[in-house]
Specification:
Blueprint (H helix, E strand, L loop, with lengths): L3 H10 L4 E7 L17 E2 L5 E6 H17 L7 E5 L6 H10 L3 E4 L6 H10 L4 E4 L4 H11 L4 E4 L10 E2 H6 L15 E6 L9 E5 H15 L6 E4 L6 H13 L2 E5 L4 H11 L3 E4 L1 H13 L14 E5 L5 H10 L4 E8 L4 E6 L13 E2 L3 E6 L11 E8 L5 E2 L3 H7 E2 L2 E10 L5 E6 L4 E3 L2 E3 L1 H8 L5 E11 L3 E10 L7 H7 L11 E4 L12 H18 L2
Parallel strand pairs: 1-12, 4-5, 4-6, 6-7, 7-8, 11-12, 11-13, 13-14, 14-15, 27-28
Antiparallel strand pairs: 1-3, 2-3, 9-10, 10-20, 15-16, 16-17, 18-19, 19-22, 21-22, 22-23, 24-25, 26-27
Helix pairs in contact: 1-2, 2-3, 4-5, 7-8, 10-11
Length: about 550
């Protein structure tokens, strides 16, 4: 069964109930489409705006866009890319694509013009839907990408000459479902890898993968029709959307929040009566820092309904969750692990009620299997480090048009994740590091995540990244890039003293105080750090030789 069936069911059962809210506390007017039929723009109490749509309108808009695409010759198996910021338009467009039998291709809003052109070509995209924020980037490559490709502008204001207008295309189209038959094995979506190691790969999923993500998410977090999900991360990424799939399955409301400031998050939870919030580590840390400083006071917000906070997309320091529970002792908590190749989060998760295992990524998720293997693909003993592999209905079909890369990670149905992990005596998996990020120093394997987790417990550390830098004698040394909490100071001597509890070979040999760059999904951009600091170290090593 395709997930479009959930949307159609909700439109029947919960026709006039609000399903999506767009909340932007920092912008007075929406700069994207105003939906002519239901322009429900409201100013918020303290500035900004709020928009909402119902399940029936959501489904009607998806149907109109599907019929518009079909009228322009889009057929089953074609690819339709979405390059838009989060908003009420995003998900109806995504579901409209799926309803045609075409393949939805969400794109990272941070892509440069060259990256946009690269990904459109890699995925063989037939149609690109883009928002006003991207006019400049698209204009720079319009002559190149518009050949044999339909460009659709979805935004307020004048439509660029090289594109068709979304509202004009859809306004006269039927709001009835197009009735295209879909099977579990039909291709459904192409997601791009995060691209932290160069140009991204195109990851192809079928409809069974998307449905499996729905089942996994709802099984893990027990969403009900009464739950309200606060969605902050970008919808182009599997993490945000697949967590929202749990709400889709039960017809629950979701709030698309534009903004990540601590006050913005707490106010959204309070005003919209949110019960489930998914955060990235930096946002959770910022919120805790604001509470520690007294900038925010919990008694100023209505938070009693908030039942679950969960985190994913990167390793989670134990110290952060322990600190969180000091402020929110009644919260359920879950860690989510996943990759775009595994339909996002859930192939491994900590599980509610397992706070005693915080620091682990958990056990195999609903409908998933796991194993930890050595370089030859053989399972390792518990307590030993190896590569984590996962298997389930949510594993990608392939890297699109890249059989060599596909064969390197898909073996007998198992996805080799490239993440190094260790399974403890209770069967809980602990992420050690990315295989390619392991530092080999003087013949010893150093796992940066372990060192980062240790340093994150220092009271002055807001964020930390550990990378390998070239060294003439040891080959590589561990360097810690440390971002200090606002209003606090820290010295290299203090960090070195703090690290005396680590075994000597694990202690960072370089301490660098600087910002820690993260991509939109919260992952540390270590290639940038290696490029920034590694070249300096290499020159120094050569000068000393």
């Amino acid at each position: 069964m395709p997930i479009t069936a959930f949307l159609e069911k909700n439109a029947l059962l919960y026709k006039d109930e609000v399903c999506l809210v767009e909340l932007n506390p920092e912008q007075d007017e929406p700069r994207r489409i105003t939906w002519r039929e239901y322009d429900l723009i409201e100013p918020t109490k303290h500035g900004g705006y709020r928009r909402e749509i119902t399940w029936s309108v959501f489904d009607e808009k998806a149907n109109r866009f599907a019929n518009a695409l079909l009228s322009r010759g889009v057929k089953k198996g074609d690819k339709v890319a979405i390059l838009m910021m989060n908003g009420l338009e995003w998900l109806p467009i995504y579901f409209g694509i799926l309803k045609t039998g075409a393949i939805a291709v969400p794109m990272n809003f941070r892509y440069s013009s060259d990256e946009i052109a690269y990904c459109l070509d890699l995925a063989e995209v037939d149609v690109l839907v883009f928002g006003p924020e991207f006019i400049g980037r698209i204009e720079a490559i319009a002559d190149k990408i518009s050949k044999n490709r339909l460009l659709i502008y979805a935004g307020a204001g004048a439509c660029p000459m090289y594109a068709d207008d979304y509202l004009d295309l859809t306004s006269e189209c039927s709001s009835r479902a197009p009735g295209i038959a879909l099977s579990d094995q039909d291709d459904a979506a192409i997601y791009f890898s995060s691209g932290t190691t160069g140009f991204p790969k195109a990851i192809l999923h079928n409809h069974e993968s998307l449905m499996h993500a729905c089942l996994t998410e709802q099984n893990h977090h027990g969403q009900t029709h009464e739950d309200v999900f606060l969605c902050i991360p970008p919808l182009y990424h599997t993490g945000a959307k697949m967590h929202w799939f749990g709400s889709l399955m039960v017809g629950g409301k979701a709030v698309l929040l534009k903004g990540t400031k601590p006050e913005t998050i707490l106010k959204a939870v309070s005003d919209e009566k949110c019960t489930i919030v998914w955060l990235l580590v930096p946002w959770a840390q910022d919120l805790l820092n604001a509470l520690d400083r007294g900038d925010l006071k919990l008694e100023n917000y209505e938070l009693s309904q908030w039942r679950l906070m969960h985190i994913g997309a990167q390793p989670v320091p134990k110290s952060l969750i322990r600190h969180w529970m000091e402020y929110f002792p009644k919260h359920d908590y879950d860690t989510n692990y996943g990759l775009s190749e595994s339909t996002g989060p859930g192939c491994v998760h900590l599980g509610l009620g397992n706070l005693h295992k915080v620091g682990a990524i958990g056990k195999a998720g609903y409908g998933w299997q796991t194993k930890v293997v050595d370089e030859d693909g053989n399972p390792v003993e518990r307590g030993k480090v190896g590569e984590l592999c996962v298997k389930g209905a949510g594993v990608m079909t392939c890297y699109y048009r890249d059989p060599e890369a596909t064969a390197a990670v898909l073996k007998d149905g198992w996805l080799f994740t490239g993440d190094m992990a260790m399974e403890d005596e209770d069967g809980f998996l602990f992420l050690v590091d990315r295989k390619k990020d392991v530092i080999i120093s003087g013949g010893e394997n150093l796992y940066p995540v372990q060192i980062e987790d240790f340093l994150a417990a220092h009271p002055a550390v807001s964020d930390v990244a550990v990378i390998g830098l070239p060294d003439k004698r040891l080959g590589e040394i561990a360097a810690a890039i440390i971002e200090v909490k606002p209003g606090m100071t820290c010295t290299e001597e203090e960090i070195n003293d703090f690290c005396r509890e680590l075994p000597r070979y694990k202690r960072p040999r370089r301490i660098i105080f600087a910002d820690v760059p993260r991509n939109p999904t919260g992952k540390i951009e270590k290639p940038k750090l290696r490029a920034r600091y590694g070249a300096t170290e290499l020159v120094a090593a050569q000068n000393n030789s």
